[in-house]
Amino acid sequence: MQIRVRMSMSADGYVTTPDGWPALTADPAFVSGQSHGIREFLVGCEAALMARTTFEPALTTDRWPWPTLNVFVLGSRRPEGTPDHVVSDSDPGRLLEKLGSANQGGDVHLVGGPRTIETFRALGALDKLELVVLPLLFGDGLRLTPSLSPDAELTFERERALPGGSVEIVYGLT
Ligand SMILES: NC(=O)c1ccc[n+]([C@@H]2O[C@H](COP(=O)([O-])OP(=O)(O)OC[C@H]3O[C@@H](n4cnc5c(N)ncnc54)[C@H](OP(=O)(O)O)[C@@H]3O)[C@@H](O)[C@H]2O)c1
Fold it and tell me: pLDDT tens for residues 70-115?
């Protein structure tokens, strides 16, 4: 099992739009239905791991965002309306243990955001950081750092151009 982060960001380095939405949602290519490589990314994944703040909007959408994945949520409380099959915990180490015991050999998509990524990186649990750099400039928003420690050591593994003008860059964490 590998824990793999996949984050979209603007070309000027913001992972959210100025009003706090994930960077990807501002891309016209996303609005017109292009996947930015997420389908290929999810082929080897069996679970999604995220923080309460990233999870909560899914409770009010028409379509459940993770139909093929087991979902694990880090947060001090379990949001009202959370389906029974979602596993939650307030302690990141305990949540990792639950993730490990449920694992059948597939990878884990760590959805975010930056504070949660740092929480699992600091525990030594993060294996890959995959960035999707969008052909957009935001001028403002949330950056990956300093929530994610600038001390994180990245090793370049591969890159590819995606339809719609984005570039995927994959780093390993040491
Ligand atoms: N560009 C992208 O691909 C992408 C992807 C996902 C998210 N995002 C964006 O990221 C932003 C949120 O990022 P963020 O860094 O502010 O917050 P975050 O990491 O999404 O969530 C923070 C929450 O996680 C829980 N948490 C984090 N570390 C913890 C720890 N050590 N122990 C216990 N609980 C812990 C806490 O929940 P409690 O408050 O319940 O304690 C905390 O409030 C959103 O605007 C979202 O749009 C972007």
Answer: 999 999 999 999 999 999 999 999 999 999 999 999 999 999 889 9
Q: Which domains does the chain have, with CATH numbers?
A: 3-173 (3.40.430.10)
Virtual torsion, Cα 39, 10, 61, 70, nearest 10 deg? 40
Contacts of 62 (CB under 8 A, 6+ apart): none
Q: Which atom of ligand 1 is nearest to the CA of 112?
A: 6
Q: What does the alpha-carbon distance between residue 87 and residue 83 come to, in Å, rounded to a whole number? A: 9
| CA max distance for the chain | 42
Atom of ligand 1 nearest to the CA of 75: 40
Rounded Cα distance, 119 and 125, in Å: 9
Cα 50 to ligand 1 centroid, rounded to whole Å: 7
At 9, which helix (H) or strand (E)?
Answer: strand 3-9
Rounded Cα distance between 122 and 5, Å, is 14
* Phi, psi dihedrals of residue 45, rounded to the nearest 5°: -100, 145
Choose among 74, 36, 31: nearest CA to 52.
74
The first and second tokens of residue 24, run together, are 């990807």
